[in-house]
Amino acid sequence: MTFHRAPRRRWLAFAAALACSAVLPLQAQPAAWPAKPVRLVVGYAPGGATDVIARIVANKLGEQLGQSVIVDNRAGANSNVGAEVVAKAVPDGYTLYVYTIANTINGTLYNKLGYDPQNDFEPIGLIAKIPNLLVVNPKLPVKSVADYVRFAKASPNGVTFASSGSGSSIHLSGEMFKMQAGLNMLHVPYRGSAPAITDLLGGQVQSMFDNTPSALPHVQAGRLRAIAITSAQRSPLLPDVPTVAESGFPGFDVQSWFSLAAPAGTPRPVIERVNAALNKALAAPDVRQRLHDLAATPEPGTPGQLRSFIKAEIKRWHDVVKQSGAKAE
After folding, report:
1. To 10 degrees, what angle do helices 169-181 and 303-324 make?
2. Measured CA angle at 85 (ends 80, 86), to 5 deg
3. Quick check: bond before 34 cis, omega within 30?
4. 138 vs 192, 200, 242, 244, 328, CA distance in Å?
5. Do 46 and 181 have their domain in common?
6. What percent of the chain has pLDDT over 70?
7. Which of 43, 57, 71, 122 is the most exposed place for a label (fewest CB within 10 A)?
8. Domain shared by 164 and 237, yes or no
9. Are 135 and 143 contacting, i.e. CB atoms less than 8 angstroms apart?
10. What domain of life is recorded for the organism (predicted)?
């Protein structure tokens, strides 16, 4: 009896250890992501293009992920307030950010930021791009880019162009054109696109490189004249309006863009899952139609493609900001 008892005890101890080793890793596994609602931070107030696009995407993302995606507006400092909130958030996948062209501009525009536009975020994927329209007051004797150039050169004071604020993509579109065309163009900044459009309609300023969704209703009503679009291709909403590139400035391609990003350090499986959900959302007919109505082109892609794009945009706008002398307001 004694001879057989020790091996039996050793066998029982071994079996118990084996059972524990099988159970413990299962207990240590985290809950499947997402196990609760996801917060999507927008760096602008409700109602603007960034907010509208975020809400279109959030609804479909929620369907794909099986959890609500809640838009959280953190407006201020040209989206820097929202960006800093996300950059400092726990990188667990439950805080995402609508990263835009503004974030690639702000790194140069502001002397000091509370975040690093490139290193504090994990790119997930592009959402969409929206071109700008070069619009003029209809009383101006200008019907084409060539007319615009001639008018600016013939006028002793050049030509004025409004923007939604110093350092905005609307402002820097004009600065890029000014540099390429070698024109005397006076920038007139406003606090938002709406007051700029109001003064353009009233004739207080002569032109503007405005976001298409903002300018389009006025163009369609005949209150403004569109003489060019800043994307590489014409817009199906305005098929008769030529691009700046085909109007004598090859390679000119400036668009506002919107993407998804997460705090740096967010697990790779989460990034890949959100990217897959985003691309499926962008393929949905209702999402594509709503983006089309905003003159936005869906831009599905990979995290790697967005990372490369952001790096290139930071370099591009660094050069424009420095050459133009643009300053944060």
Report:
1. 60
2. 100
3. yes
4. 22, 10, 17, 19, 31
5. no
6. 90
7. 71
8. yes
9. no
10. Bacteria
State the Cα–Cα distance between residues 259 and 261, nearest whole angstrom.
7
Q: Do 243 and 262 share a domain, yes or no?
A: no
Overall average pLDDT of the 194-205 stretch: 95
C-alpha neighbours within 13 Å on the C-beta side of residue 315: 6
State pLDDT tens for residues 98-135: 999 999 999 999 989 999 999 999 999 999 999 999 99
CB 104 within 8 A of CB 79: no
pLDDT score of 224: 98
Number of domains in the chain: 2
The two tokens of residue 3 are: 């001879």
List Cβ neighbours of 300 (8 Å cut-off, separation of 6 or more).
125, 126, 278, 279, 282, 283
CA separation for the pair 182, 117 (Å, rounded) = 31
Q: Specify the pairing of strand 95-100 against strand 255-263.
A: antiparallel
- CB neighbourhood size of 82 (10 A): 24
> What type of residue sits at position 81?
V
Q: Please state, in angstroms and rounded to a whole number, the distance separating the CA atoms of residues 110 and 81.
A: 13
User: In this structure, is residue 18 part of a structural domain?
Assistant: no
**Are 121 and 153 found together in one domain?**
no
Range of the domain at 97: 38-130+256-324
From residue 17, give the alpha-carbon distance in Å to each of 10, 26, 315: 11, 15, 58
